[in-house]
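User:
Note these tokens:
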Amino acid sequence: MEESLVVRGIDLSYLGVYNIWNDDLGTEKSIRISGMSGNPDILYAIEAICRRLDLPGLTSVESSLPAHRRLCLHLCGFGLSREELDASTEALAGQGRHTKAAALALAHGDVKKALVALQKGSTSTHRELSLALAGFSQGTNDESWTSAIASIETSIPSTDVYALAILTYVRTGSWPSVLAETYLPLYYRIGVALLYIPDPDLTTYISTLTTECIHHGDIEGLPLTGLSEQAVPLFQNYILKYHDLQSAILAISHTSPRYFPSSLVDIWRAEYRHRLNAHRLFIPRVRFDAGATKLSSSATASSNGAKQQSPALAPAARQVSLKCNNCDSAMDRNPAHVSSTSAPLAPPTTTTTTRTAGSIFPDHRAGTVCPKCGKHMPRCVVCMLWLGMPDPHSKGGAQASAEKVGGDGKKGKGKGRGRQLMQDF
């Protein structure tokens, strides 16, 4: 999907309805039009994307920017072809969501399909709505019909927002009246506006909705902002309101810093990594680091003309560490890294004091005790051997045990022990 939104070096990936309608590529425009000089032909790019995606034409309203409307409708799940509309309404009706199927068909101007969806329902609300819609389609508008509509409205539960939308349209015959009903999902209102509202009113409506969603931290507004720079203040207010940092950073990592740098997103990323580490979720944190670095990569042209991926986010340093269960310190045998406040366990007074390079303990203790606090490493729950000891069943362990028993000398013992420790770690 991402590649289908790139045309002649113009990258429209992750942009929202507001950006597409207003030809807004953001402040870092040069990133989205790499390899192009002068003003980009965004109209050509949008028309090419519509042809590539085979988006259906628009006949419900006169517009000077029909391609913009078609792409925006695609972004919010509207503007379906006849086959797609048939499949969607049948799927919704099969799930028992008859009023949503009817509202979707009605928004696309297919009254007959809306009636079929309602007639498949089993409740009195479905039957009453189908009668009201049938009367509306035949032009009925007398006093008895108006009173019947008012009676139906009182019987519809307030939770069935799509039934209320159908009844509002049947009562008024005006799509702007439906847009005024704020109980409707935002994507449905955006789709209806794109299908029926004239260009000047549509520009005002989209701008107003976008501002409101950003102000209230409403993530329903993501179809409007996309994951562009406008999504950052939206997510900021969302985090302040719901304290959900994870959803925000996982979403915005798809575009920042790849398409735009943001110091606020950098703070969120660092805080999210800190929280994962604090909860000892090291594997999810590593996956997040790797995924964020991969998402920050963008294709750049090399000297020979071939494209190569260059990450905008520096990969995290490789981190492999064993920690002591007692003091939670790394099992680092470098004496320079031993804390001065916690002296290591003193070596025992024994004649065998052969040391492995880099170890502060004799060979028989290196790798089996913590160099910070001196506590022994735990035993294996299966074989009950101390962790860090050579496995007597392995090739290196058997050799080390043989050298220890046979007394082949300090050199051989140290070499076998060092090799086995490298295998263990």
The longest strand covers residues 297-301. The two ends are 43 Å apart (CA to CA).
